[in-house]
Amino acid sequence: ETEPRVVLSARGLRREFAGFVAVNNVDLDVHHGKIHALIGPNGAGKTTVFNLLTKFLPPTNGRIELLGRDITYTSPAKVARLGLVRSFQISAIFPYLTVLDNVRVALQRPNGLGVQFWRSLSALDRLTPRAEELLETVGLENARDSLAGDLSYGRKRVLEIATTLALDPKVLLLDEPMAGMGQEDVGTVSNIIRSVARDRAVLMVEHNLTVVADLCDWITVLQRGEILAAGDYATVSSDERVKIAYMGT
Ligand code: ADP
């Protein structure tokens, strides 16, 4: 087996807000075919790191590369087109459209940003096979003709993942994909993430350490904006500083 390919990397990421250092000296490597978790207590800087990677925020310092290309100063729309997509980018699913139409609308957007008017019906029809394939990937094929607003909470979040996959991301950023879900939905979403990570990279913020242990190949632990530890679950969970951070000392 060859070395897993780094598809997204950050070096020396730093972000200040009016002099307050929210993220400092963060290095990350995200690999094709792997699931990477970003964890840490509230205020650790996880959201800020996501905002820096997707270019919603410019870094005060540091460098970001996507598929070997420097994206440190690239626009969010361009970064999305290049293949780095965050789940909530189109997470606003349309409750009065069917499940299938939500995915077809997502498929007709070039980068998942902004709202676009419907194209002609024949143009939409051409998107149906791909939309059905995506619904199958996430196990929503039976809900194809339901209104998105009628889905359970867990299945709405699954539909969000399908609309994100419509952009064919090379790197998928998921912000607490299981938040608020019951055990059964957590299992379903874990399986979906595992299957979509086979041919792309996944970076996720996740609070549920059982999920992280079960699902993630690599874990970066942030605390007060800095990397406290990084490694596989066994490594980070046995790290004394991580234990202290999670016991709230
Ligand atoms: P997490 O997602 O890990 O909870 P955040 O990235 O949201 O952490 O926040 C990290 C720190 O940066 C917090 O102290 C937060 O208050 C601060 N912060 C985040 N965004 C801003 C902002 N726009 N202006 C000022 N401070 C911010």
Automatic annotation (TrEMBL):
PROSITE patterns registered for this protein in UniProt: ABC_TRANSPORTER_2
Record key words, sorted: ATP-binding, Nucleotide-binding, Transport
SUPFAM superfamilies given in the database record: P-loop containing nucleoside triphosphate hydrolases
Any one GO molecular function term: ATP binding
InterPro entries hit by this protein: AAA+_ATPase, ABC_AA/LPS_Transport, ABC_transporter-like_ATP-bd, P-loop_NTPase
GO cellular component: plasma membrane
ABC transporter domain: residues covered: 8-249
Protein name: ABC transporter ATP-binding protein
